[in-house]
Design brief:
mainly alpha; 16 helices; 78% helix
């Protein structure tokens, strides 16, 4: 983050079930409040993605196979899926600053446990626990940031919080991957725990307290789960983005064993993915302002083409440095549109809807890692995850088209009401 989110003199943002009494912030106060919340996203992004660049080191240390290391990725993702709706609903009535602090404290403690866990089984458990606060933190932090600004700046405030995740992939993931390769892969957990502790200090100092909405309740938030369009959006994200994670979960052995790239160069590849992710977030946000559904459809089409191209040319070293950032752009461009679709589908339960976006993406993470492990165990080779990813993206495209048809019918019915 290198500049201040622009202040505005308009009234504080409001929306159904998210109306809160929050101080308007300007200039440096707004910057530091959003920076503090984004730092939590930085830590979350670091722990989620760094493990994918250290699967070989972790497998050697724990005495397990590469597919078994994929279970660590899936365990974290499963924690996100389980924790996002449950913790968001449980914290519905809690003051929002207190809620994000409790979530970040849990995230910090459980990552520290991963550092000290002596066996593979305990590392799996601690990874699951560390994933529990992920989705709820992002959902509540985004709404908290939005409450400090006017309606015209609401999207920008949320984007700044999400940018912590993107920056983690440019800076944090390569740096912590290098650290893990140099002094031990478990130090990724310690590094993330330090970031979490630093985030708690920043939130304590710079984030003003904000009460929960007066009409907030567990029952109100859970109404989002009754909406069929919400589930269609989740399914589209799970299947479409799962194709990306089928490849990315095993990017380190693909780069070294198929393309012949030195292991020490893997952090550079991860950094390029992070750059693609930052670009994709911006591009996806702009495109979703034009058409949410069309953006999702085109992202799926582009991912199909890129995965197939990567699969057929994975043995060419320099092309790895092309396909990975392009896939990062296509995958990340999908995220803002999915977020917008979920928020629009559940206007009275936006906190839960916001967290469900991360549930869907991490279900995709788990699905991709597990299916990638399955094709590797079946002996299809390290190119197989890319072709599997293309097939999943095709299914995501079909779901996106169905979702678009449903949305048009819903919009037409609302217009005629």
């Amino acid at each position: 983050m290198t500049q201040n989110p622009a202040p505005d003199d308009q009234p504080t943002a409001t929306s159904p079930n998210t109306t809160v009494s929050a101080p308007k912030l300007y200039g440096k106060k707004l910057f530091w409040a959003v920076f503090a919340l984004a730092m939590g996203g930085f830590g979350i992004g670091a722990t989620e993605f760094t493990i994918m660049g250290l699967v070989q080191e972790g497998a050697l240390d724990l005495g397990v196979s590469l597919p078994a290391m994929g279970v660590l990725i899936s365990a974290y993702a499963l924690g996100v899926v389980v924790g996002a709706p449950i913790l968001t609903a449980m914290l519905a009535k809690a003051p929002r600053k207190n809620a994000v602090m409790w979530l970040m404290l849990a995230f910090t403690v459980f990552n520290a446990l991963s550092f000290f866990a002596p066996t593979y089984e305990l590392v799996v458990v601690s990874r699951f626990l560390a994933g529990l606060p992920h989705g709820a933190y992002f959902g509540l932090a985004a709404l908290l940031a939005a409450s400090y600004v006017a309606p015209t700046k609401r999207g920008s405030a949320i984007a700044w919080v999400m940018m912590g995740l993107s920056v983690a992939n440019v800076v944090g993931v390569p740096l912590i991957t290098w650290l893990g390769q140099t002094i031990g892969w478990r130090w990724m957990f310690a590094s993330v725990a330090i970031v979490g502790a630093f985030t708690l200090v920043l939130i304590t100092i710079f984030v003003p307290p904000v009460a929960a909405p007066k009409d907030a309740s567990v029952r109100t938030e859970l109404t989002a789960l009754k909406n069929g369009q919400v589930w269609m959006a989740i399914a589209t994200g799970v299947v479409g983005f799962g194709g990306f994670f089928a490849m990315y979960s095993y990017i380190s052995p693909i780069a070294t064993d198929v393309a012949g790239i030195p292991l020490q160069t893997v952090p550079v590849i991860l950094a390029l993915y992070g750059v693609g992710m930052v670009i994709g977030n911006g591009v996806g946000g702009k495109l979703s302002d034009v058409s949410v559904i069309k953006t999702i459809v085109w992202c799926c089409i582009v991912m199909i083409v890129l995965q197939l191209a990567f699969g057929f040319t994975a043995h060419i070293p320099w092309l790895v440095f092309v396909w990975v950032p392009l896939l990062g752009i296509a995958g990340s461009a999908l995220v803002p549109s999915l977020q917008a679709l979920l928020m629009d589908s559940a206007p009275k339960a936006q906190a839960l809807a916001a967290s469900l976006n991360h549930s869907s993406l991490n279900t995709a993470n788990a699905l991709g890692a597990l299916l990638g492990a399955a094709v590797l165990d079946a002996g299809f080779g390290l190119r197989a995850p890319m072709f599997l990813g293309a097939a999943l993206a095709v299914l995501g495209l079909i779901l996106a088209l169905i979702t678009g048809i449903r949305q048009r019918k819903i919009d037409a019915a609302s217009a005629n009401a």
